[in-house]
Amino acid sequence: MPLSDAETGSRESGVGGRSKNLDLRPTIFSDPRPPTPDPRSEVVLGALQEWMQSVVTHHGDVYEAAEEASIGVETVILPSATLQPIQRVGIYHSMYMLRMIEALGVDYGALANILGEETFEELVRAYVLRFPSRSYTLNRLGDALPEFIATSKLLKGRVFLRDLASLELAMTQVFDEAETEPLPGDAVSSIAPEQIAGARIVPIPALRLVSADYDVNEAFQAWREERAIKPRRGKTWIAVHRRDYGVFRMTLTREAFAFLGFLIAGETIGSAITMFHRRFRRLPEQNELFTWFRDWSAAGLFAAIEVD
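and the corresponding structure tokens:
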């Protein structure tokens, strides 16, 4: 079960690019001249924040946004020495979508590469319209992108693109999870024989399983190595995990993927074996179980063992 090279770095450098904390707060009175007293400008903070958000995130241009807003732009924004109030707000309105495109381009670098700049930008604009940011951070902005791609009529080869996006999403998710000390490599093998069936293996939080119809692991690696991405159809099973702040991709067999999935779902080893038998009409062989647990333990996929 080969491990890929680690996708190392910080959320601001390697995997994640620049910080994604969204800060679009305007300096409303940045002009050094004192504001002209105007009773209309006495807007409560909550209403002002809602107005600013509605204008900045509006899907149309800034003039359409201003027309639909509950407060007139000139009521709360003064002109600067060179810009009118609507133009000042327009800067933030334009920056918002550019920030969405930049953020998703970091999380979905391989996808952006294969689509090209123009198509990727069109995809992000359509996606954000349906799944707008609901948080102060953009780290989870792209969580629904694989789902969106699967139903999008804008794209050709949607299955491959969905699978590639699913892999990249798993990588960003595990990178953001809490770092947990894994069990020692021999922890599972030290379980008493009479306790094995009832033992429950607790996975580390930074672990995701990806099932794909294309070999997206190879496609992603090709992008990392600046080789041409050639979509190759074929069922692929991958465990994505983080250890020591590096993100790894481990290819699995269908059987190993299923068994590990049972464990992640909270099944005991005994019940996982039973469920495996129901699915594959056979019991896992002893050498299979040995190899799986050896490799998964060595990779640091388990955080604890609970024995009933």
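(Above: one complete record from the training split.) The mean pLDDT is 87.
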